[in-house]
Each structure stands twice: as structure tokens, then as C-alpha cells.
Amino acid sequence: MAPPSFAAAALLALTLAAPGTALSAVSRVAVESSSNAPLFESETLQLTDESLSHLSKNQSAYFDFAKNDSSLHTRTFGNGCKVFPGDWLWPSEWVWWLFDELLGGALIKTVPLAASCYKSWPEYDANECETLTSEWTDSNIHAADPASVMWPLFEGRSCLPTTDSSASCTVGGYSSYAVNVSSVGQIQLAVNFARNAGLRLVVKNTGHDFNGKSTGAGALGIWTHNLKDIDYIPNYKSSSYNGPAVKMGAGVQAHEIYEKAHELGFTAIGGEGKTVGVAGGYVLGGGHSPMSSIYGLAADQVLALEVVLANGRFVTVTEENNPDLFWAIRGGGGGTYGVVTSVTSRVQPKVGVTVSTFSFSTGTDVSVDAFWAGVRSYIERFPQNADAGTYAYFWILATGADSFTFLMNPFFAVNHTLAQYNTLVKPWYNDLEDLGISITPNSTYYDNFYDAWMAGFPLETVASSVMMTGSRLFPRSNWETPSSFNATFDALKETISAGYSLLAFNMKAELVDGYPSNAANPAFRETLLHAITSTSWDANATNTEIKSKMEDFTNNVLGKWRAVSPDAGAYMSESDILEPNFQQAFYGSNYARLYKLKQRYDPTGLFYAPTGVGSEDWVVKSLDGLPDQNGRLCRA
Ligand SMILES: *[C@@H]1O[C@H](CO)[C@@H](O)[C@H](O)[C@H]1NC(C)=O
Ligand SMILES: *[C@@H]1O[C@H](CO)[C@@H](O)[C@H](O)[C@H]1NC(C)=O
Ligand SMILES: *[C@@H]1O[C@H](CO)[C@@H](O)[C@H](O)[C@H]1NC(C)=O
Ligand SMILES: *[C@@H]1O[C@H](CO)[C@@H](O)[C@H](O)[C@H]1NC(C)=O
Ligand SMILES: *[C@@H]1O[C@H](CO)[C@@H](O)[C@H](O)[C@H]1NC(C)=O
Ligand SMILES: *[C@@H]1O[C@H](CO)[C@@H](O)[C@H](O)[C@H]1NC(C)=O
Ligand SMILES: *[C@@H]1O[C@H](CO)[C@@H](O)[C@H](O)[C@H]1NC(C)=O
């Protein structure tokens, strides 16, 4: 940011010293982590009381750590809202400039990613707009932007790529500013600043979250994407574990950790998606993995986290140190208890995987009844397949009136040779043959996870504005009696027949014996099927039409799934933003304890994320009536 000209004199008031950056408030400290994993260089660069003592009283009022006293209520405008651009309490240009100086120049004022498409922005550039438009659905460009997210619908669609350069583009629901984080001290400054100034705060890593947790109008964003360190720890020790581990910076993405694990000869537990941030909202929300049927959730692997709390302090969270946070942060959701700067997780031995893809459809040889009988024969086998340690991603689509397609996309048979895989699926394949359904599976064995994952899962397509999703974790008990199975099968069939595609995972995610328990959704522990469906609308649909589509989807389409699994839940990170009673659905019996811990560690409600723990105490006054983040955040 360019300094305002009048600021030069004020510089003299600052006598902050840190290597390299004359004015930065961040300095290297000689402290060790209380976990067995040494701090990263970026984690030794911290904000200290000493460095703050060089600020004038007026300045330090913005950047001080939380006092451990009664000054705990949120600073809000008279209307009970977080301070918003244009409010008289909104920090002046000079304060933003000072903040940037203290950060060492890491503050970025938000320019929407698609600004190049609009004449009203200085960034207007028709060629660049064309390139951006062609790349819009590529997750990489959103991960690499300080403010962009992969679900523009929940931002507020305030600046989409367009060929109409005179249309309107606003910062909308994107954060107003973002800190491009390279040290813990910068996160501490941002947390203290947002808390002291009453600003909305959002944490953005890649921006994958389905519900808009990494975006918010008028917010200060903390962008953790560039925290890319990876350390291998051959002998990590804690009360319940003694073995190899890996420490990952918050910005490490699936393809990066898997590649590293491959190089070192172990298996890391992360997501299926190529660009998902493994140590970000993914793991904090539980995180299902192609390895889940054997090792449980990504959150279950976590041995230690380094975290900046709402009071600005940097703490190590392990089973022994801050045990309540250790329980809550692992599964209790991102952007809720603090900003995680790194995660240290168990690693698992190298394992071989058979990856198989195939499809079948209704047609001249396959009647609709035969098709569904073939699908039924598959779904009946979910308990055996998950218990065998496999994970399968499949789609079932209606392709017209009374025409359907099944796609295995892929069957990911962990710890199965080709022969073992073929034995596992033989009874199903035999049923298909008896039904006159012919398939030509493309099955390949890989001797390691990385190669199998690279072959099995393509880069995800993101950033649609004309659809939303919903999901359900169907429990094993639904497979236990013929009538509960029939009800489950009929509900899925009815959804698909009504034109809603099924994108689903046959898997389980039990907590492995001896692993410490955590706050992950208890519904995960019971599940055999994480089923996702979606609804969509015309690009020209009005907001009222979209709203009514969404409500119909939530109540009537997903309502059928809830009706056959009333005590189950849904995976918070791939879910319906309008999920009724989200507390039960996303957190189950853990919610009361999570809420209590939220009050204890974040009494001012500094961290807000839609459908996060404690989010019921807040409301976003969205400008278009849709459940997006384009509006003031106010006390409910
Ligand atoms: C400090 O802030 C007060 C009130 O906000 C203002 O009146 C005063 O001029 C400020 N002092 C300095 C040195 O900026
Ligand atoms: C606040 O004070 C209490 C009681 O003195 C103490 O136990 C606690 O650790 C303090 N918290 C912080 C964040 O300093
Ligand atoms: C963010 O900071 C990193 C250094 O940590 C730098 O390489 C990168 O260019 C910065 N990104 C932006 C968008 O400023
Ligand atoms: C892999 O499968 C073999 C049997 O083929 C079994 O003995 C072993 O325990 C399995 N490994 C894991 C990690 O499940
Ligand atoms: C079979 O699948 C592999 C990925 O596992 C792919 O590379 C290959 O092209 C596929 N072969 C055919 C014939 O589709
Ligand atoms: C379940 O559905 C199958 C296939 O339609 C049917 O044969 C069976 O009688 C049903 N069982 C129950 C208990 O409803
Ligand atoms: C909206 O777009 C659809 C095609 O996607 C078109 O059939 C319809 O006429 C359009 N409606 C309006 C009001 O422009």
C-alpha cells in the first residue's frame, strides 16, 4: 500500500526493530513449541508485548493483545454490528497504512478477481478478462487470490466474469483487505486489530468451503495460502502416539503433501480434491479422505496444532497442552476458535491401491428396472466394501425421462491388489451380468497412494453461480434391516429420478482404537455413505426464484433424505448452507460442549463463520436476500 503523504512524520514515532523490515512489529523470538515438532521459521516471527510497547497509546489501542479483564464485549457500532466500511468507526486510511507498516507490507486491498472485465475498475483489460473467464472454474486461480472463493453464490455474486464491461462489479462479500501471511506475528497483528477495531475477521486458505466461510463483506481477511512449509518428524512422541509424523503449514495443499509423502515413502491423510488445503478448514471440519475407511478422518490424525487465539496469543495445542482446544479444533470447524498456522499429523505406511473406473446406462439392452436393480446390488454391498477399507466415488444421473447413467469415478480400493479388488466386486459384477448390464472396468493397481490418487481424481471444477449442494451421512443402521435399506434406496432413487444428480462416497470414518477422541461430527463414525446432491437454476433467475429453489431443495429434496436418517447428520464442509438445525446436523451431540468452549476462547465473537459454532448469535444482513456474505454482520 502507498503511504499517505502526511504519514512520514508519524514514522518517527515508531521505533520498532525487526530484521529486514525496519518498521515491522514482528520479531524473531527464541521459544520452542511445547509439542515434539519444532516451530517453523514463520512461527518464530511473532508479535510481542515488547514490540507493542514502542507504539503510542493511540496506536497500541488498535494492536494490543486482549486484556484479561472485563473489556470483553465486542466493539460494535450502535446497531450491534461489526464496524463496516463507511462507518465513522471504520479505521482511517492512516490506520490502515500503519497496520500495513507493522505487517511489513503484507496488506492487500481487495480487487475482485474479475475486475479486469469491468470498465469501472482501473484493472479493466479485455484480454485479461477473456483469459480469466476461460479459467474461472479452475480451483487454482481462486486459491491463489487473497479474497476469491470457489462458491461466488455465497460471496454475493458481486463481480463475476462477464462480456458486459459496463455491468457493475463491487467488492461485495469479499473481505475488504487481506493480510498475505508469512509469519505468526502478522496473524497476531490482524487478530488484535480486528478485535480492537470491531472489524469482521475471516480466515481464507484456498476458499474451497461450500458455505462461504472464507468470505465476508467489510472483513479483514487472513490469507494463509502461502504458509507452505512441510517437515517430516521421524519420531514424534505424545501420550498416545510414538512414531512418524508430518508437520504442515496451514497453506499446504493435497497435491503438495501427497507428493512429499510419496518421496519419503509414507501415506499422508488428506482429501480427495487436488487443491484442497489439507491443514486448513478441511482438517478442522473433520475431513474425509480416500484413506478414511481404514484410518478415519484427517482430524483424527492430528497430534499438534499451532494456533493464534482470539486474544492474539500464540499457543501450542496438543493432547497434553490445551486439551479442550485439542478436542474442539479437530472437527469443530474452521474459522471458529483461532487461526491455525500449522498442523502436525500422524503419517501411515505406504500402501498399494487399485483404481477402477467404469459406467453403465439404461438403453436398448438395459431397462430402467434392470438399471436400478444393478444399482441396488451395489448399494447393498456398502457395509462389506467399507469394511474392506475401500472408498468409492460414484455418480448417478438422470440423463432424460426414464434414462439414467451410473459412473464409478473411481472405485479406490486401498490395500487391494487387482486380484483382491476383483474378488471384492465379483458378486456385484455377477449381478450386473445376470441383469444383462455389461461393463468394461478400467482397473489399475498402483503400489502407492500418490500415483493412484493422481490417476483417480481429476482437478475439481468450481465457481458455479447457478447451483447449490446439500448432503447427508447415511448411517450403517440403514443397511441393517430390509425395510430400512429399502427406505434408503427408495429415497436415493426418488431424488435421482426427480432429476437431482447423486455424487456420493461409499466409505466409513470410524475413530481408530487408541486415537484420542475429537469434535468431529459423530455422524461420521456411523456412516457408510456420504451422499451429495445439488439443485440448479437458469443464469437469469431472479433472486426470489433462486431463494425459492433453495428452500424447496432444502425442505423437500433433502427433507426426504433426513426423513430416512433422522438421527444422522451431514458433513459441514460439503453441505447445504440452509441445513435446518445445523447444530445437530454438523456437530451432533458435541454441540453443547463446542458452544461452551467458543464462549470461553472467543468471548467477543471475533471469529464468525456461517454455520460455525456460535454463528446463531449473529446474522448477515445480506443485500439480495440470499444466504450470502454480502452485507453487515450483526448480533442476532
Ligand atoms: C489520540 O486520540 C485522541 C482521541 O482519539 C485524539 O484526541 C488525540 O489527538 C490522539 N493523539 C495523538 C498523539 O494522535
Ligand atoms: C486470565 O486470567 C485467569 C485468572 O487469572 C488465568 O487463569 C488465565 O490464564 C488468563 N488468561 C489469559 C489469556 O491470560
Ligand atoms: C504474498 O507473499 C508472498 C511472500 O510470502 C509473495 O511471494 C507473494 O507474491 C505475495 N502475494 C501477493 C498476492 O501479494
Ligand atoms: C492390508 O491387507 C492385508 C491383507 O491382504 C491385511 O493383513 C493388512 O492388515 C491390511 N492393511 C491395512 C493397513 O489395513
Ligand atoms: C484407465 O485409467 C487410467 C487411470 O487410472 C488412465 O490413465 C487410462 O487412460 C485409462 N485407460 C482407458 C483405456 O480408459
Ligand atoms: C424391499 O424391497 C425389495 C425389492 O423391491 C422387495 O422385494 C422386498 O420385499 C422389500 N422388503 C421390505 C421389508 O420391504
Ligand atoms: C432465461 O434464460 C432462459 C434460457 O436459459 C430463457 O429460456 C428464458 O427466456 C430467459 N428468461 C428471461 C426472463 O430472460
Give keywords:
636 residues, alpha+beta, seven-stranded antiparallel beta sheet, five-stranded antiparallel beta sheet, 22% strand, globular, disordered N terminus, binds 2-acetamido-2-deoxy-beta-D-glucopyranose, FAD
**N→C terminal distance:** 35 Å
What would the principal axes of the Cα set say about the shape?
globular
Please identify the structural class as seen in this structure: alpha+beta
> What is the gyration radius calculated from CA atoms?
25 Å
- pLDDT < 50 stretches: 2-22
Multimeric state: single chain
Number of helices, counting only DSSP H or I runs of 4 residues or more? 22
Largest sheet: 7 strands, antiparallel
Please indicate the percent range of residues in DSSP E strands (runs of 2 or more). Answer: 15-25%
User: Which strand order do you get reading across the main beta sheet?
Assistant: 17-14-16-15-19-20-18
How helix-rich are the residues, as a percent range?
Answer: 25-40%
Number of strands: 22
Q: Estimate the mean pLDDT confidence.
A: 94
Bound compounds, each kind once, are:
2-acetamido-2-deoxy-beta-D-glucopyranose
Write up what this structure looks like:
It is a single chain. By secondary structure, the protein is of the alpha+beta class. Helix content is 30%, strand content 22%. It has 22 helices and 22 strands. The protein has a 7-stranded antiparallel β-sheet. A 5-stranded antiparallel β-sheet has the order 7-8-12-10-11. Strands 3-4-6-5 form a 4-stranded mixed β-sheet. The radius of gyration is 25 Å and the shape is globular. The two termini are 35 Å apart. This is FAD-binding PCMH-type domain-containing protein. InterPro entries: BBE, FAD-bd_PCMH, FAD-bd_PCMH-like_sf, FAD-bd_PCMH_sub2, FAD-linked_Oxidoreductase, Oxid_FAD_bind_N. Its cofactor is FAD. Keywords: FAD, Flavoprotein, Oxidoreductase, Signal. One of its GO terms (molecular function) is FAD binding.
